[in-house]
Amino acid sequence: MSEFNEQNFEGLLKVFNGTVEAIAALYEKRDPYTAGHQRRVAQLACAIARKMGLPEEQIYGIHIIGVVHDIGKIAVPGDILSKPGRLSPEEFNIVKTHPQVAYEVLRNLEFPWPVAETILQHHERLDGSGYPNGISGEAIILEARILCVADVIESMASHRPYRPALGKEKALNEILKNKGILYDPAVTDACLRLSSNGGFNLNCE
Predict the structure, then answer these.
(1) Is the pTM here over 0.85, yes or no?
(2) Could you say which of 88, 119, 144, 153 would form a disulfide bridge with 171 (CB–CB 3.0 to 4.6 Å)?
(3) What are phi and psi for residue 175, nearest 5 degrees?
C-alpha cells in the first residue's frame, strides 16, 4: 500500500472509530445506569482476545463490536431499563429483543468484521439456553463467545438499578462454574489468566 493510501486508510479508520464512539455515547446518554458498560466490555473483550493470541485486526474489530453491542436497547422503554426492582417475565422478554433490533439496524452496513452477527449472538450460550435464537456450540461465532464472557463479567461486577455490584470474584466464579456449559472454555481460561496475572482491571467497582 502506498504512503498516500496508508494515510488515507488511517484517516478513514479515525472517522469510522469516531462515528462508532458517537453512537455508543448517544445510547449511554439515554441509559445512565449502564454508562461506560459498553466501553468496559470492549476493554475486557479485547484483553481476552489478546490473551488468546488473536491477530490485532480481529481484536480491533472486537473493540468496535464491544462499544456498540447494546445499541439495540434504544428500542427498550426507559422505565424498563432503569427499573429498580426485578423485571417481570414480560419486561424481560422486551429486553431480550435488543440483539435482534441491533442486528436489523447493522446487518446491511459493510464492516470488515462480523459486527451485526456478533451482536446478534452475544447472549447465546454454549448449551443452547441463550437468546434470541437458542443456537449452541460452534454455531456461535468466536467473537460472540468472547463478548459473552466479557459482558457477563462486567455486568456482574458493576452496579445495576436492580442490585448493587456483585464484585469480580463472584463474576469469575460464575464463568468458572459454567465453563464448557454456558461459556467457551478457551475464552473462560483466557479471562481467568487475565485475573491471575494482574491484567484484569475494569474500573467498575
Answers:
(1) yes
(2) 153
(3) -75, -30
